[in-house]
Amino acid sequence: MTTSVNLWLPEYKIILMTSDTQWGTYDTDEKLISTECARKIYYGNSWAMAVNGSSGFDVQKLYKSLGYVPSGRHSKKFEQTIQMAIKNERFEEINRLNMDASRRGEEMRDMHSFILAVNRPEMGLYEVDEFGNVKPAKSTNDIPIKHII
User: Fold this and answer.
1) 118 and 53 in contact (C-beta within 8 Å)?
2) Separation between Cα atoms, residue 38 and residue 23, nearest integer Å
3) Could you state, in order of their start, the residue ranges of all structural domains in the chain?
4) Measured between alpha carbons, how far is 45 from 48 in angstroms, rounded to an integer?
5) Are 110 and 53 in contact (CB under 8 A)?
6) Closest by CA position to 116, among listed 34, 42, 18, 49
7) Does 135 have pLDDT greater than 70?
8) Are 94 and 59 spatial neighbours (Cβ–Cβ below 8 Å)?
9) 126 or 57, higher pLDDT
10) 99-112 pLDDT, tens per residue?
11) Over 60: is that where the pLDDT of 144 sits?
C-alpha cells in the first residue's frame, strides 16, 4: 500500500509531491508480513514521478532502463521519453513493466501506477495508470485549500 499526496497550485506555479517510504509484503489474506524502506519519488531537472504499487525492484529497473542516474545527472533520453509519453498520452514502458509483472502472476492490485509532474514545456500534473495511459490529474478544486494542508 502506498500513501502519496500530490498538490498542484498552478496559480503559484507549485507542485508538491510526498509519499511514504516503505514497501509492504502481504499474504493472500492481505495481512502485512514485512516491510522494507523504499524510494517512491524520483526526479530530474524538469520532472518528478511518484510510484504506487507493491514493490520497488521492477520500478528501479524501469528507471535504470530509461537512463535515470541517482547522482542527479539524468539523461536526456529520460526527459525525452517523458515528453513523448505526455504528447502521445501513452507511457509504453510502464505498460510493459506491468505486463511483465502480470505474466509472472502478480495481481492487478500490485501493478504500478504513477503520478508525473513536469515543468517543461509547461507545468502539469498527470496520472499514469497501470496500462501506461497518461491523463491530466483529476482536479480537487472543490476541496478548500485549508482542508488539504
Assistant:
1) no
2) 6
3) 4-148
4) 8
5) yes
6) 49
7) yes
8) no
9) 126
10) 998 998 888 878 88
11) no
Bigger pLDDT: 3 or 28?
28
Q: In this structure, what are the phi and psi dihedrals at residue 63, rounded to the nearest 5 degrees?
A: -60, -40
Instruction: Give me the amino acid identity at 46.
Output: S
54: Cβ contacts below 8 Å, ≥ 6 apart: 23, 24, 106, 109, 110, 111, 112
Separation of first and last alpha carbons in the chain: 22
State yes or no: pLDDT of 6 exceeds 80: no
Q: Give me the residue label for grid cell 485549508.
A: 146
What is the identity of the amino acid at 5? V
- HEC sequence for the chain: CCCEEEEEEHHHCEEEEEECCEEEEECCCCCEEEEEECCCEEECCCEEEEEECCCCHHHHHHHHHCCCCCCCCCCHHHHHHHHHHHHHCECHHHHHHHHHHHHCCCCHHHCCEEEEEECCCCCEEEEECCCCEEEECCCCCCCCHHHHC
